[in-house]
Amino acid sequence: MTAAGAGAGTATEQDLRRLVAELLVVRCSGHLSDDQRRYPRWELDNATLRRLLAEGVGGVILLGGSAAELGLRCRQLQAWSGQPLLLCADVEEGVGQRFEGASWLAPPLTLGRLYQREPGRAEELAERYGRCTGAEARELGLNWVLAPVCDVNNNPANPVINLRAWGEVPATAAALATAFLRGAQAEGVLCCAKHFPGHGDTAVDSHLELPRLDHERTRLEQVELPPFRAAINAGVASVMTAHLLLSELDREQPATLSPAVLDGLLRRELGFKGLIVTDALVMEAIAARTGGAEAAVLALVAGADLVLMPENADAAIDAILEAVQQGRLSPERLAASQQRRRRALASVAEPAAQQTSAADAALPLQRLGEGPRAEHRALARELVQGGLQHRGGRLTVRPQGTPSAAGCNLIRIDNALQCPALPLGAPALNLPAAAGFRSRLLEPRSPSPWSQDPRHPLNLESLGSGAVLLQLFLRGNPFTGGAGGQEPWEKAIQQLQELGRLAALVVYGSPYRWDSLVAELDPQIPAAYCPAQTPLAQRYALEAIGLGEGSQAGSFTD
Hints:
Shape: globular
CATH class of the largest domain: Alpha Beta
Mean pLDDT: 89
CATH topology of the largest domain: TIM Barrel
Strand content: 5-15%
Number of domains: 2
CATH superfamily of the largest domain: Glycoside hydrolase, family 3, N-terminal domain
Structural class: alpha/beta
Strand order of the largest sheet: 9-7-5-4-3-2-1-10
Distance between the termini: 54 Å
Radius of gyration: 24 Å
Oligomer: single chain
């Protein structure tokens, strides 16, 4: 049955098609205009999006735009649909992580490290973290927060989970993830525990290829599963699957497509009664080995309720309908998923940005137009301060703002074009500039800074002859394949120290890279670390090494 031919069918066929469509979650931009889409390969244009919603597609995942624009976008999407929608986003680090103007918080692993010293304080902060995220999501029109990550990041080489995890041991991850979801779901949104049954011990990014884990079942029970059990017991509304192969459970299919994992382990053994949603099916771990439409079918056969980001929504609907005709899926099985979806939607408060009264709907947008609430700004500061580390001395700056050895502010980032942590007014740029350092950005498209000499790997010709302030933005990010782990920054630090040119080191992101780099550092050289990469984190880190106090550049607001 084709998308074009389906409309001519019987009422029963039309009803079944709408039922199937209701189980799909498609991707769109948070911006209102097609021209503003950041990722047109995955983000549907407005005409296609409007048609699919009218045909019954039941969910949308959003990315990009301002907080106020997101509020308008959510109302627009709801108006295009004839049914209540699931509207979600990957806001693991607060709504401001994806939508400018809302609260962008320090990564969850910040609290995982704090939990080892102050468990009570860490849990209290995690619950406030959830309340902040849930409240802002609901005000803007989102009703489904794709968090918390329940993976246990016990592998420092993990290229994609890393700071997104709440802990490096099961007890920490369980305690903090459940504290977060208690806070968020109390604000009237759905939460999502991910990535089941555990993506924390992989050294491969499932956005790029399929990870494989050969752990025995006893190991899974000890490490991977406890946070998910805790989240289920705490009433989490949904669970997201992981695109990885667990040979102990299924030697053929990744967890997302495995009946043994989803229907067997998650649904029957762990007793989860809520929504099971796939991770995005466009990720290479699935797309490279299984056709996009067939992956949607296999996920539903395995026990998933919702299909996130199928490669082609129309083709996925057609393939699922064909699977019903072939007897691979029953209408009753699909109807059960539909009922779980509708129960979940009925359990949450109506998003403020979707209220029928225009005056009521304008209130949260007006408030967020003034920036995050005072208590949310205070939380952001407390999280940054709780994760900040500082050692060594402080930069010696002359009264006129010129350092004793003016030089280069060398900044390593993942991508200059998509680096929300570095707006034009970012402290990482402005505070060093006020002290006489000129900035140079290193990103994937930059000329290579590396020489062929393994002992002196950094090519210093383009850095001038003065001191070097080294700022490294290093963390696991989807599609990047690592957190700067293949770059010889340890040797570069040794090289700069031998020449007497390293003024200071600041690392934002991975605690594992900080640990390895600071081990090479002269104890007298100023150094700071913060898990967060936000402008707020930059200001605190740079002030810790002596840049920013009392200067106009140091007045960046939080």
